[in-house]
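Title: Prediction job returns without error message
Component: structure pipeline
Severity: low
Priority: P3
Assignee: unassigned

Description:
Job completed but the reporter wants confirmation the result is attached to the right record. Sequence as submitted:
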Amino acid sequence: MRWLVQLLGNAYFYITTVLIYFCFTVMSPFVWILTVPFDPGRRFFHYFLSGWSSFFFRINPIWRMEVEGKEHLPEGAFVMVSNHQSLMDIIVLFMLSHHFKWVAKRELFRMPIIGWMLSMGGHIGIDRASRADAVRMINDCLKWLGKGVPVMIFPEGTRGKIATVDRFKGGAFSIAEKGGVPVVPVTIAGSAEMLPKFRYPTRRVHVKVVIHEAIAVEEVERLGAQEVCKRCEELIRDTHKGMRPGLYE
């Protein structure tokens, strides 16, 4: 019986996903063309993607999401940092409905649909093998922060093989220090369970997002980028461990 549930779940997920992606592919160029002349920051397009992500999430009946601490998102520019478990993190963080720019590896910009979404949204790509591209990425981040637009970075750099929190790299925190903006740590738990090994789960998945209190500009300047990096890594790992202790045994 379980194989039948798995088969029906996979069929439901992939059929609805293809239909939704088809509609998105048709609609998004028109939304972009109509809005970009008077919205150079792509704010409207970001909220369009947020709505699309919410719809995609909510039509899957066994996925549930809880957000804690949304009041901790400050006005204006900041650097948001989060652990990275799955491609589904993109859907989950878009559902926060808060305008920001992603920093994503260049390979994602070459993928169908996801790449178009990132390009049309004005997000920031980086070739991790190129030092020159890293400098350009930093300048792009500082440019958006200077315009009051938050930047979202996964400081682990890539997804881990298991859904624990890996070591953080310091780039995101150096950008916050240079830009003179707060850092907002975010913990995600459960996104890796939404589509394990590209198979639809047979039991309910509870995704939880915890938005921690912002680390103020003054604190970032006092502590320095490396210490802020260390504290955010420990905070996010401890929070994630509290929600998924079995992964750390």
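Comment from assignee: result matches the submitted record. The chain has one domain: 2-248.
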